[in-house]
C-alpha cells in the first residue's frame, strides 16, 4: 500500500530539492573557468581603462567554423575577427588600414608588393614571416583545399621577396585587389597548426590576433583569452565568450539583466527605447536595402496574368518610384536615423565613389504624374502583382508601405515573405515581380556595382533584377581593371546616373548596424558592416569593474 | 519474449527506411539550394556551381538517396554540408542534452500529472477537480514557445533566479547543469503533464466504476490500497500508452524549446539543418528520432506485461 506514495514522494522531494538548489543564485551564463579578475582591483579614475574582466557576447546563431578560409557565416566571422589578422583591413570610416602588412605599393597594374610587420607572434609563439603569407595564399589557391569561395580568382601567384616581404602577381589588373586581401578569409594562419590538426583546425584555431582560443563547447560557446603579446596593444580584457542565443527577445532580456554584455540585434519595436537607455549603438551601415523590379522577359509570374512583364516598360518603373515616398517610409522604420541612412543607389553615400548629383535626379513623389505614366504605358486601371520581401521586420514594414503606395495608383499588391532559402531560390530564378531585398559587400564600390548591375551577374549572381546595359558593363569592367582612381571615380559616377535614369531599383536605405552593449563595456564600436574588433590600433575594449 | 522483441526490431527496419525516404524526398522537394544558402547571396555563381559539384548535389535525387542508404547501412551517416563534420558525431555529441531534457520533462510530467489526475478523479465534481482540469486545459492549449518566453521573462528577467540560456559541459554536471535545465524541462513538460493528468483522471474514473473495485472495498481493504493497487494500476495501462507516445511529442517539442533556451541538443541542430538545407544532418536527426520513438513504443508494449499479468509475449 505504501510503495507508490513513497515513490511519488521521493520524486517530488527530488524535484523540490532541485528547484531549491536553483533559488539562491542569480546568474545566467556560467563560464567553465572563472574570469581572471584581480581579487582587489586598484581603484581607477573614471574613464581610465582597467585591465581584467570577462566579456560575454551573444551571437544570434551558432557558429560554423573557426578556420577563416572556410568561414562563410557572420557568426563565425565575429569570433575570427578576434583570433586572426589580415594583411590589410578596413577602418570604421571605410578607409584601408595596415594590419599585418605595414606598407604596400602597386609596381604595375598586375604586381603588388607588401612589406610585413616584424615581430608579430602567432599564438603558438612562433614569429609570423613572409612564408606564412605565401602558405596561406597558396592554401586558398590550391584546388585540393576545396575552398567554398575562391576570393583570389585574380591571383596568378604569390612570392616571398624577403623575410618580411611578399609580391602578388595578378592574372589581370584588378582594382579592388586590396579589398580582397581585407577579407577575413585571407587571415594569415600558421602552416604547422593546420598540419597538426587537419580538419580539426576549425576547432583548434591559431592566429596572431588579440585573443587566443581556449575552448568551444556547444552549450558554453567559444571562450577566448587575452594574447598578452598582441602587436597593437596588450588587451585589457582577460576573457571573451561568444555564446549563441538565437531568440532576440531572450538575448535582449539577458543584456538588460547583465547576463550578457553584447548582443547582435534587438527587436525593432525596442530599438528606440534601448537607445534611450544607452544600451544600443546604432550607426549607419553598408548593407544596401532596395526594392527592385524583375526585368526578366519570361520568368516574372505577372507575365502569366498580363501576357507581358509590365516592369520592362520604364514608365511603369518610374510611376512606382513617383508613388513611393521613400523618406516617409524610412522615417517609419528608423525615426532617429532617417535622413543619414537614405540610399540613392548601390554606392553608399559616404563612399569616395558616391556621385552626390544623383540625389537631385530622383523625382519628388507625385501621384498624378504616376497615374498618367501608368495610363500611357497601357495600364490605366493598374494591375495585380506580388511583393517578395525578406522576412525581417524592417523590410516587411517597407513592403507594407510600398503596398499602400501602389494601391494609390491602382496597383494591387500582395506581400510574400517566405523562409530565407525559398526566397533566395525565387530571387535567383527571377520568379518574382517586385522584390524587397538587401546586399552587403566590402566598402569597395566594385563589390556593389558589379554583382548588382553587370550583365555577367544576371540571374543568381546578385543581379536579381536581370538588368543589362552595355554602357554600364563597359564602365564597370574599365573601372575594375585600372588603378587610376580618377578613372574609377568618373566611371562609377556615370554608372550611378544611368542607374537612376533607368529606374533599375527603388533604393531604400543603408541598414544601420545595431549592437546592444551593456553600460559597463567601454570603447566598443560597431563598424558599418555590423562587425567589431575588441583591440585595434585605436581601440582596446575594457570593462568598468 | 526475446523472439517478440527481435520480431519488433526487425519490423522497425522498413519503418525506418520509409521515414528516411520520406524525409529525403521532402527535403529535396523544398525550394532552396544548400550551396547558395551556405555561400550566401553574394557568392559568385562559379563558386556555387563548384560547391554543388563537390557536395554531389547535381546527381539525381535517387542516386543521392542510394548513396545515403548505402553509407547508412555501414553506420556512416555522411558529412554535414555546412559544418564539414561527420553527421553521426554531430548528432551523438548533442544527443545527451536532448536525452536529458526529454528524460527530465517526462519525469516531471509523470510526477506532477499522476497525483493531479488521481486527485481530480477521487474528488470528482469538486472545486479541486474543476481547478485541476482547468489548469490542465491551459497546459494543453498554451504553445510551448509562449510558455518558454514567459518562464524566461519571470524566472530569468524579473526575478533572476534561474538562467535562461546555455548549458555547462557534462564534465561539470551537477546543480549548475540542472539549474539550466529547470526552465526548458518545465516548459516542455507542461503540455505532456496536462495531457497525462487528463488521461489518468478519465481512466481512473472508468476503473472506479468497475465491479472489482466494489468487491475490493467490500472485502474491507483500506481506501488508499483500493485506489492505488486496484484502481490506479488498472488505469495506468492506457496512460502508459500516452506516456510512450509523449516521447515523440517531447522530441518534437525539443526543437522549439532548445532553440529558445539555447540548449545545444538535437532539436536545435535540426532547426539549423532545415534552415541551411543540410540534408545529411536532417536525415541523421530524423533517423535518430524515428529510432527513439520506435524503441519507446516497444518499451511501452513490454511495460503492459508488467502492469497486467494477463498480457504475455511468450
Detail the poorly predicted runs of chain B: none
DSSP, total strands of chain A: 18
Report the span from N to C terminus of chain B: 5 Å
Order of helices and strands of chain B: HHHHHHHHHHHH
Proportion of beta-strand residues of chain A: 15-25%
Indicate the mean pLDDT of chain A. Answer: 89
Rg result of chain A: 26 Å
Q: How many helical stretches of chain B?
A: 12
Helix content range of the residues of chain A, please? 25-40%
- Coarse morphology of chain A: globular
How much of the polypeptide of chain B forms β-strand, as a percent range?
under 5%
Shape of chain B: globular
- Which runs of chain A of at least 5 residues are low in confidence (pLDDT < 50)? 1-41
Task: Give a quick account of the main beta sheet of chain A: strands, pairing sense, barrel closure.
Answer: 10 strands, mixed
Order of strands in the sheet with most strands of chain A: 8-9-10-1-11-16-12-15-13-14
Query: Structural class, from secondary structure content of chain A?
Result: alpha+beta
Please state the CA-atom Rg of chain B, rounded to the nearest Å: 24 Å
Q: How many beta-strand segments of chain B?
A: 0
Tell me what you see in this structure:
The complex is a heterodimer of chains A (545) and B (314). Chain A is α+β, with helices and mostly antiparallel strands. Chain A has helices at 3-23, 74-83, 130-141, 177-181, 191-197, 248-257, 271-276, 302-306, 314-323, 326-333, 338-341, 367-376, 393-407, 420-428, 446-453, 470-480, 485-501; strands at residues 54-59, 88-90, 96-98, 101-108, 111-116, 155-162, 165-170, 211-217, 221-226, 239-244, 262-263, 280-293, 384-389, 412-416, 434-439, 505-517, 521-522, 542-543. A 10-stranded mixed sheet of chain A has the order 8-9-10-1-11-16-12-15-13-14, with helices on both faces. A 4-stranded antiparallel sheet of chain A has the order 4-5-7-6, with helices on one face. Chain A has a two-stranded antiparallel ribbon with strand order 2-3. In chain A, strand 6 and strand 7 form a beta hairpin. In chain A, helix 16 runs antiparallel to helix 17. Chain A is globular and about 75 Å long. Chain A starts with a helix and ends with a strand. Chain B has 314 residues and is an all-alpha fold. The longest helix of chain B has 39 residues, at 223-261. At the A-B interface, helix 1, helix 6 and helix 14 of A face helix 2, helix 3, helix 5, helix 7 and helix 8 of B.
Amino acid at each position: 500500500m505504501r510503495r507508490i506514495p513513497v515513490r511519488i514522494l521521493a520524486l517530488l522531494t527530488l524535484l523540490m530539492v532541485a528547484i531549491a538548489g536553483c533559488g539562491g543564485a542569480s546568474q545566467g551564463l556560467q563560464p567553465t573557468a572563472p574570469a581572471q579578475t584581480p581579487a582587489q582591483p586598484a581603484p581607477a579614475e573614471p574613464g581610465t581603462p582597467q585591465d581584467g574582466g570577462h566579456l560575454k557576447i551573444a551571437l544570434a546563431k551558432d557558429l560554423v567554423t573557426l578556420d577563416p578560409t572556410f568561414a562563410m557565416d557572420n557568426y563565425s566571422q565575429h569570433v575570427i575577427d578576434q583570433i586572426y589578422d589580415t594583411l590589410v583591413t578596413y577602418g570604421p570610416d571605410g578607409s584601408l588600414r595596415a594590419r599585418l602588412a605595414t606598407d604596400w605599393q602597386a609596381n604595375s597594374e598586375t604586381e603588388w608588393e607588401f612589406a610585413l610587420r616584424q615581430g608579430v607572434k602567432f599564438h603558438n609563439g612562433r614569429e609570423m614571416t613572409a612564408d606564412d603569407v605565401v602558405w596561406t595564399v597558396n592554401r586558398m589557391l590550391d584546388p585540393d583545399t576545396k575552398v567554398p569561395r575562391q576570393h583570389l580568382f585574380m591571383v596568378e601567384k604569390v612570392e616571398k621577396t624577403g623575410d618580411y616581404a611578399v609580391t602578388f602577381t595578378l592574372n589581370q589588373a584588378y582594382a579592388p585587389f586590396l579589398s580582397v586581401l581585407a577579407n577575413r578569409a585571407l587571415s594569415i594562419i600558421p602552416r604547422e597548426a593546420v598540419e597538426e590538426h587537419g580538419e580539426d583546425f576549425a576547432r583548434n584555431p591559431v592566429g596572431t590576433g588579440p585573443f587566443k582560443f581556449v575552448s568551444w563547447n556547444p552549450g558554453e560557446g567559444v571562450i577566448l583569452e587575452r594574447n598578452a603579446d598582441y602587436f597593437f596593444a596588450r588587451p585589457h580584457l582577460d576573457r571573451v565568450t561568444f555564446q549563441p542565443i538565437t531568440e532576440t527577445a531572450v538575448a535582449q532580456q539577458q543584456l538588460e539583466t547583465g547576463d550578457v554584455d553584447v548582443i547582435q540585434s534587438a527587436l525593432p519595436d525596442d530599438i528606440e527605447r534601448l537607445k534611450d537607455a544607452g544600451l544600443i549603438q546604432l550607426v549607419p551601415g553598408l548593407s544596401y536595402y532596395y526594392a527592385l523590379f524583375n526585368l526578366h522577359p519570361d520568368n516574372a509570374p505577372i507575365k502569366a496574368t498580363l501576357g507581358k512583364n509590365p516592369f520592362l516598360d520604364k514608365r511603369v518603373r518610374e510611376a512606382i518610384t513617383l508613388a513611393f515616398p521613400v523618406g516617409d517610409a524610412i522615417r517609419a522604420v528608423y525615426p532617429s536615423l532617417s535622413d543619414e541612412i537614405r540610399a540613392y543607389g548601390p554606392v553608399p553615400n559616404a563612399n569616395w565613389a558616391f556621385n552626390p548629383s544623383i540625389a537631385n535626379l530622383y523625382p519628388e513623389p507625385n501621384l498624378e504624374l504616376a497615374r498618367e505614366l501608368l495610363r500611357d504605358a497601357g495600364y490605366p486601371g493598374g494591375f495585380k502583382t506580388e511583393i517578395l520581401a525578406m522576412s525581417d521586420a524592417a523590410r516587411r514594414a517597407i513592403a507594407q508601405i510600398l503596398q499602400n503606395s501602389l494601391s494609390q495608383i491602382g496597383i494591387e499588391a500582395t506581400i510574400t515573405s517566405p523562409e530565407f532559402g525559398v526566397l533566395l531560390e525565387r530571387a535567383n530564378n527571377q520568379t518574382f515581380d517586385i522584390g524587397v531585398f538587401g546586399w552587403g559587400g566590402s566598402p569597395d564600390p566594385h563589390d556593389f556595382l558589379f554583382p548588382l548591375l553587370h550583365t555577367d551577374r544576371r540571374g543568381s549572381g546578385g543581379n536579381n533584377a536581370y538588368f543589362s546595359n552595355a554602357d554600364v558593363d563597359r564602365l564597370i569592367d574599365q573601372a575594375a581593371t585600372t588603378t587610376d582612381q580618377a578613372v574609377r571615380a568618373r566611371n562609377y559616377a556615370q554608372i550611378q546616373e544611368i542607374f537612376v535614369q533607368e529606374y533599375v531599383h527603388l533604393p531604400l536605405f543603408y541598414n544601420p548596424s545595431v549592437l546592444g552593449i551593456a553600460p559597463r563595456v567601454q570603447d566598443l564600436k560597431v563598424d558599418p558592416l555590423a562587425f567589431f574588433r575588441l583591440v585595434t590600433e585605436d581601440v582596446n575594449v575594457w570593462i568598468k569593474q | 519474449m526475446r523472439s517478440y522483441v527481435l520480431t519488433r526490431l526487425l519490423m522497425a527496419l522498413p519503418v525506418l527506411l520509409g521515414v528516411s525516404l520520406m524525409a529525403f524526398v521532402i527535403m529535396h522537394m523544398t525550394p532552396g539550394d544548400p550551396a547558395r544558402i551556405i555561400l550566401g547571396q553574394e557568392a559568385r555563381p562559379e563558386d556555387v556551381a563548384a560547391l554543388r559539384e563537390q557536395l554531389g548535389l547535381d546527381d539525381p535525387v535517387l542516386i543521392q538517396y542510394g548513396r545515403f542508404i548505402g553509407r547508412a547501412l555501414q553506420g556512416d551517416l555522411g558529412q554535414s554540408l555546412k559544418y564539414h563534420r561527420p553527421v553521426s558525431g554531430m548528432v551523438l555529441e548533442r544527443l545527451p542534452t536532448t536525452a536529458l531534457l526529454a528524460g527530465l520533462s517526462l519525469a516531471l510530467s509523470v510526477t506532477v500529472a499522476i497525483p493531479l489526475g488521481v486527485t481530480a478523479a477521487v474528488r470528482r465534481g469538486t472545486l479541486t477537480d474543476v481547478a485541476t482540469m482547468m489548469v490542465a486545459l491551459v497546459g494543453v492549449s498554451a504553445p510551448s514557445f509562449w510558455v518558454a518566453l514567459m518562464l524566461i521573462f519571470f524566472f530569468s528577467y524579473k526575478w533572476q533566479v534561474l538562467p535562461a540560456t546555455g548549458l555547462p559541459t557534462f564534465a561539470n554536471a551537477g546543480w549548475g547543469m540542472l539549474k539550466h535545465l529547470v526552465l526548458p524541462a518545465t516548459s516542455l513538460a507542461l503540455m505532456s503533464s496536462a495531457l497525462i493528468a487528463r488521461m489518468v483522471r478519465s481512466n481512473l474514473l472508468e476503473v472506479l466504476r468497475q465491479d472489482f473495485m466494489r468487491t475490493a472495498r467490500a472485502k474491507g481493504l483500506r481506501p488508499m490500497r483500493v485506489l492505488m493497487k486496484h484502481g490506479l494500476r488498472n488505469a495506468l495501462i492506457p496512460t502508459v500508452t500516452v506516456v510512450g507516445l509523449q516521447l515523440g511529442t517531447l522530441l518534437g517539442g525539443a526543437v522549439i524549446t532548445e532553440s529558445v533556451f539555447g540548449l545545444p541538443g538535437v532539436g536545435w541542430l535540426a532547426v539549423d539543418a532545415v534552415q541551411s538545407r543540410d540534408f545529411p544532418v536532417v536525415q541523421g536527426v530524423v533517423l535518430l528520432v524515428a529510432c527513439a520513438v520506435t524503441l519507446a513504443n516497444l518499451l511501452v508494449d513490454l511495460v503492459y506485461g508488467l502492469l497486467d499479468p494477463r498480457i504475455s509475449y511468450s
